[in-house]
Amino acid sequence: MPGVFQTSPDELLKDAETAAEAGVGGIILFGIPEKKDATGTEGWASDGAVQQAIRLLKKELPQMVVISDVCMCEYTDHGHCGILENGEVVNDASLELLSRVALSHAEAGADVVAPSDMMDGRVGAIRSALDANGFDNTPILSYAAKYASGYYGPFREAAESAPKSGDRKGYQMDSANSDEAMREVFADIEEGADAVMVKPAGPYLDVISRVKAETGYPVAAYQVSGEYAMICAAAERGWIDRERIMMESLIGIRRAGADFILTYFALDAARALRNSN
Ligand code: PBG
Ligand code: ZN
């Protein structure tokens, strides 16, 4: 994707400083391990890339809110968001490992942990693990309404996390259904989520609006890699005005009810907003 790179913790600090200067309030981290295995062991390594990056960022740039993405798919050799048994994702056995990942991020100093795996019961499991280890004050931003989407393609390539077999339809939401998404959202809130996310954002504005209206909770919307890539590609061809469409897409998400937005445009949008003020 244009403008998107895999980075190391020290380079990341420079990018984060640039973002902070532009007025970006927070960043989210995804890790790519040196070695992948069946259970995603590197996901909870205390010296893993994400854990190192969190420690460095919180030390050098404490005002930047650091959110850590909690999942297995970047760390497992099969690329699924939980562990497999006979080729099937096993929900409950995955919860313990996801809890370890979240705890290792909290120990490194993450301000917010954000489980994106979509296993049932993960918010409750992570909440218990955090509380039992003295991290009662670490909030959980749950990817609550996360759809099985074609818009994740560029991310999976960048994070080397596409599933090797099958797809994620067993645990991610069906794009034709918003009632199912609402049930997931309420289940996550019941289990202790502090804020809930809708993902992707642009094609699911009705879901953002429903989640905000029906829960009153802080709602995040994630404008994903495919949404970003399409805008960039069309702009590169001269078919649309990049900055104008960037802002229009973000304003639409905001208008639908998102309290905050995760977007690959964060730096550009922060700069554009500053200039327009
Ligand atoms: C999976 C995960 C996904 C993204 C981030 N973490 C989706 C997926 O591969 O199913 C996609 C983000 C993007 O497209 O920007 N835990
Ligand atoms: Zn995943």
Bound ligands, named by name, code or SMILES: ligand PBG, zinc ion
For the record, what CATH class applies?
Alpha Beta
Mean pLDDT across all amino acids: 95
> Would you count the extended β strands for me?
9
Major sheet strand order:
6-7-8-9
- Provide the CATH topology: TIM Barrel
Order of helices and strands: HEHEEEHEHEHHEHEHHEH
For the biggest sheet, the summary is:
4 strands, parallel
**What's the CATH H-level superfamily name?**
Aldolase class I
- In terms of DSSP E residues, the strand content is 5-15%
Q: What's the domain count?
A: 1
Radius of gyration: 18 Å
List keywords for this structure.
TIM Barrel, binds ligand PBG, 277 residues, 10 helices, 3-stranded parallel β-sheet, alpha/beta, binds zinc ion, 4-stranded parallel β-sheet
What does this structure look like?
- This protein is α/β, with parallel strands linked by helices and 277 residues long.
- α1 (9-22) packs across α2 (49-60), α3 crosses α4 (122-132) and α4 packs parallel to α6.
- The protein is built from ten helices and nine strands.
- The relative contact order is 0.12.
- It has helices spanning 9-22, 49-60, 91-108, 122-132, 153-159, 179-191, 205-215, 225-236, 242-256, 266-276, and strands at 26-29, 65-70, 84-85, 88-89, 112-115, 141-146, 195-199, 219-223, 260-263.
- β7, α7 and β8 form a beta-alpha-beta unit.
- The longest helix is centred in the middle third of the chain and has 18 residues, at 91-108.
- It has one domain (9-272): TIM Barrel (Alpha-Beta Barrel), CATH 3.20.20.70.
- It has a four-stranded parallel β-sheet.
- The protein is globular and about 50 Å long.
- Ligand PBG is lined by residues 69, 71, 73, 81, 116-117, 152, 155-156, 161, 168, 224-225.
- Zinc ion binds next to loops.
